[in-house]
Amino acid sequence: MQSGKERLAAKKDLRNEPAYPLTEAARYIKVPAATLRAWTFGRPYPTARGSSHFRPIIRPVSLRPPLLSFWNLIEAHVLRALRTDHGFSVKAVRQAVDYAQRELDIEHLLLRQELCFDAGQLFLDRYGKLINLSASGQLAMRQVLQAYLRRVNWDADQFPVRLHPFISSVPANSATDSMPIAIDPRISFGRPVVVSRGISTATIAARIDAGETVDALAADYDLSTAEIEHAVVYERAA
What we know:
Blueprint: H1 4-9, E1 20-21, H2 22-29, H3 33-41, E2 43-47, E3 50-54, E4 67-68, H4 70-80, H5 90-104, H6 118-130, H7 135-149, E5 152-154, E6 160-163, E7 181-182, E8 193-194, E9 199-200, H8 201-209, H9 214-221, H10 225-236
Antiparallel strand pairs: 1-4, 2-3, 5-6, 7-8, 8-9
Helix pairs in contact: 2-3, 5-6, 6-7, 8-10, 9-10
């Protein structure tokens, strides 16, 4: 049986190619650009002896220029699930990921479908203990993570192939929340599209800004008016 590392090596495809500048990637997954930069490139922090530097949690596919891959987007999407009212610790996340990978021998845990099962529970249990979460807090965080993981489609090797991003920067946690938008490296060069027709959300928003109506675009693209509105809200959400 192939190890996780060997399977990852066999997956050198467009999903792991540099494709997204930081500001663009941050907009797609609805996190502040400074936050995504800290996750992917680390950040300085003050100490009694001067300045030190947090190592990043996500290893970006390209340092110069700073570009992220589709798989990096997935990792950031998963991390976003932990940015709840319970607080967020870069150091604790890194330690929890390292612990779960050591215990289960899973490479690149934040990319793997195993997060939906025992690996995810082990990771969250460790993270919750590191940041002193109550039992109810750990349960709430587990539910949030599952809501995020439901938005990822996986291939037979349990690697992500498609992300359904949240439409706004304040996501709903409902299991029935609609997923009309997709980011798929095989469609529109990995830029967000309306799922049903593969139409670029940026194109729809640009045409609305140019003065065209929702009804006209719905007829033009054979989309519902709700899909047009979702595309515009997604593009304009902070």
